[in-house]
Amino acid sequence: MAGSPNSNLRGFNHAVHTLLKQPSQFLPHLTIPTFTYLPEDLGPHLIRKQHQPPTPPEKPIQQRIPTIRALVLDKDNTLCPAKTTTFPPKILTKLSQLRESPTSPFNKTTNPHGILIVSNRAGSHPTFDHEVHELESQLAHLSIPVFRLPAGAEKKPFCGDEVVQWFREREVIQSANEIAVVGDRLGTDVLMAGMMGSWSVWCKEGVFEDGEEGKGERNILEKMEVWIEKYLRERKGCVAPVPRGWEERGI
Predict the structure, then answer these.
(1) Among the residues of the chain, which ranges form H helices?
(2) Name one Pfam family in it (predicted).
């Protein structure tokens, strides 16, 4: 794990460059208030009609649905309040449902390596090793690990290839478009999903719903991201692009 524990200046610069050159990459495929709203059957919720290629009216085709076999979950302000390892009860309940429900594609028995926490704190630098231990201790019964950033790799959004390789090595996926990245930040989580060739889910309110006890004020970057997303979607008519190559590969 290289670099200082807190610096992600290159990530910020990349976000600004992407916003100027490819603004649609900032948009998520699905927006939910918090992680607790994540659908178990995620695939159909990621696709909208405008994502489908145009076809002649005399040759209608069935809408193609992504198959999601792996979840990448952010930690700070998605699963836990920022800079903590405290899971709100509703978040733990949702994680338990995803790992223990017999109908869940992320069931720990049928898909033991289907969920991975990828954080720019825990697992990204030795400074935060205590967070890794605390998270994995609390989630041991659900078999949810924390990703350790390999030596020489960079933080989100630049570690997507290493994350895809983690799932490939465990035979969870064949293609990156079988992964959904879930997080509260457009400039890291959503951008990383696009760079990976995966789908993105934005937890717009963070770890707590609007008005819920414990919810704090958004910081300046979070406020800017909310404004940017609304502007691109409502004023500019932008749509999140599907993962590269997904149309050609088939289901």
Answers:
(1) 9-21, 43-46, 89-100, 129-138, 160-169, 191-196, 220-230, 246-249
(2) PGP_phosphatase
* Eight-state DSSP code of residue 124: T
pTM (2 decimals)? 0.91
pLDDT per position as a tens digit, 87-144: 999 999 999 999 999 999 999 999 999 999 999 999 999 999 999 999 999 999 999 9
The Cα 78–Cα 203 span in angstroms is: 7
Contact 215, 209 (CB under 8 A): yes
The 10 Å CB-count burial string (b at 16+, else e) for 133-156 is ebbbebbeebebbbbbbeeebbbb
96 SS3 class: helix
Domains of the chain as residue ranges with CATH: 10-37+66-244 (3.40.50.1000)
3-state secondary structure of 181: strand
Q: Would you state the structure tokens that stand for residue 247, as one six-digit string? A: 């149309």
Q: CA–CA separation, 28 vs 236, rounded Å?
A: 15
Amino acid identity, residue 108?
K
What pLDDT shows up at residue 230? 96
Per-position DSSP letters for 76-122, written without gaps between them = BTTTBSTT--PPPHHHHHHHHHHHH-TT-TT-TTT-TT-EEE--SST
Decide which of 185 and 20 is more confident. 185
CA dist list (Å): 114 to 14, 37, 97, 142, 151: 29, 18, 13, 11, 23
Q: Which residues pair with 180 in a beta bridge?
A: 71, 199
Looking at residue 227, its pLDDT comes to 95
Task: For residue 120, give Cα distances in angstroms to 134, 155, 157, 195.
Answer: 16, 6, 9, 16
